[in-house]
From TrEMBL:
Protein name: GTP cyclohydrolase 1
Record family assignment: Belongs to the GTP cyclohydrolase I family.
InterPro entries in UniProt: GTP-CH-I_C/QueF, GTP-CH-I_N, GTP_CycHdrlase_I, GTP_CycHdrlase_I_CS, GTP_CycHdrlase_I_dom
Keyword line: GTP-binding, Hydrolase, Metal-binding, Nucleotide-binding, One-carbon metabolism, Zinc
Annotated NCBIfam families: folE, PRK09347.1-2, PRK09347.1-3
All residue ranges annotated as the GTP cyclohydrolase I domain in the record: 24-202
EC numbers on record: 3.5.4.16
Protein's pathway: Cofactor biosynthesis; 7,8-dihydroneopterin triphosphate biosynthesis; 7,8-dihydroneopterin triphosphate from GTP: step 1/1
């Protein structure tokens, strides 16, 4: 099922969207560029499929990340420590080659006046991941949005991913992991907080 979405891109509202037919024609050109025949049986419906798949893969372009933070609750009594969601699987696409990079996100925050529905953190990761990205920007955007939306005391995000543009082409170095981190608030100001975050992730890995 095709995901319902707004017609206007959140990140590029001024850019005219092509029609679906134009998008399908572009896929057909790429098939020919790859040296194959778009008329052959197996490829005949591929342009339509790819145009449809793009609506899902890049659905984050049509979503406001702030909307993902819509389930909040008053903070429980004295809870003042970190809330960590580790091992959030994500799939994104590198903006240089339009091929996937994928891996795990570890997201922690220290609440101030309210706490966030846990699923909403994974939702936020998905919204930003389902855009053309660099891993660095993806990491920073998740952290900054969570910081802003929750007015958190601090946010810590670490992402580890394999980039297929490095594995299957170019340098052809499969299995490398790229690690990125972004810290705000107390995680930025107090190195001890960063260490706590990292040791909690390690503990979870055991
Ligand atoms: N910093 C950063 N670089 C990335 C990311 N994804 C891919 N790249 C790199 O972007 C660079 C693009 O380099 P270019 O020389 O413009 O393109 P290219 O000739 O295809 O380079 P190669 O990938 O090395 O074959 C490469 O070094 C990629 O590894 C990312 O998320 N962050
Ligand atoms: Zn790439």
């Amino acid at each position: 099922m095709e995901e319902r979405q707004k017609a206007i891109s959140v990140i590029a509202p001024a850019v005219k969207r092509p029609t679906r037919e134009e998008a399908e024609a572009a896929v057909e050109v790429l098939i020919r560029w790859a040296g194959d025949n778009p008329e052959r049986e197996g490829l005949r419906e591929t342009p339509q499929r790819v145009a449809r798949a793009y609506l899902d893969i890049f659905s984050g372009n049509f979503k406001s990340p702030a909307d993902d933070l819509d389930a909040t609750f008053p903070k429980e009594a004295d809870y003042g420590e970190i809330v960590l969601i580790s091992d959030i699987q994500f799939y994104s696409h590198c903006e240089h080659h339009l091929v996937p990079f994928f891996g795990k996100a570890h997201v922690g925050y220290i609440p101030s006046e309210k706490i966030l529905g846990l699923s909403r953190i994974a939702k936020l990761v998905r919204t930003f991941a389902h855009r053309l990205q660099t891993q660095e920007r993806l990491t920073a955007e998740i952290a900054e949005e969570l910081q802003k939306g929750m007015n958190a005391k601090g946010v810590a995000v670490i992402m580890e991913a394999e980039h297929l543009c490095m594995s299957m082409r170019g340098i052809r170095q499969p299995g490398t992991q790229t690690l990125t981190a972004h810290f705000t608030g107390v995680f930025k100001d107090e190195p001890i907080r960063q260490s706590q975050f990292i040791s909690l992730i390690r503990q979870n890995e055991k």
